[in-house]
Amino acid sequence: MSVNLSKGQKVSLTKKSGGTLTQVRMGLGWDAVKRKGLFGGLKSQSIDLDASALLFDAQGNLVDQVWWKQLQSKDGTVLHTGDNQTGAGDGDDESIRVDLGSVHAQVDNIVFVVNSFTGQNFTQIENAYCRLIDEATETEIARYTLSGSGQHTAQIMARVVRDGAGWSMVALGNPASGRTFHELLPAIPRA
Length: 191
Hints:
The chain is mainly beta. It has one helix and 14 strands; from the N terminus they run E-E-E-E-E-E-E-E-E-E-E-E-E-E-H.
């Protein structure tokens, strides 16, 4: 059963049957708000949201990043499945797979961010969400709705943190501004 997370809420990534999840996928989905066209019909627009995974050590130093220009972490444990530049279609528009069981020991937490590369703000985006899926069973574990439309062009969505022998996820939902993850770094709260 999936948990609908609210800002600041934490969910353990321990399996109901015991043990911890090792293969997870962070999915990002969105739709562009339809605008009235010249003759009164609804017109679709393309919005290029980008999902990124930022890998930090316990001191808050950026160790590695996965985004549309670097689709795989240096150790191969985090993989971006590709860039969707329109948001068209149903379901997850971008996904990042993480092999939690093999993430380098130096990595203490992974922060997932989303930004509008084309610069539109969140008033032009609807139905946006991020969700965490157990890759082994294709079961949705947690979902965070990227609500609160506003003038921001990015959101710091969630943090997956080492929690003893396992991992947990914390919904952040912090609005920010920037067209790439580089511009978001100062806004990311350090663990």
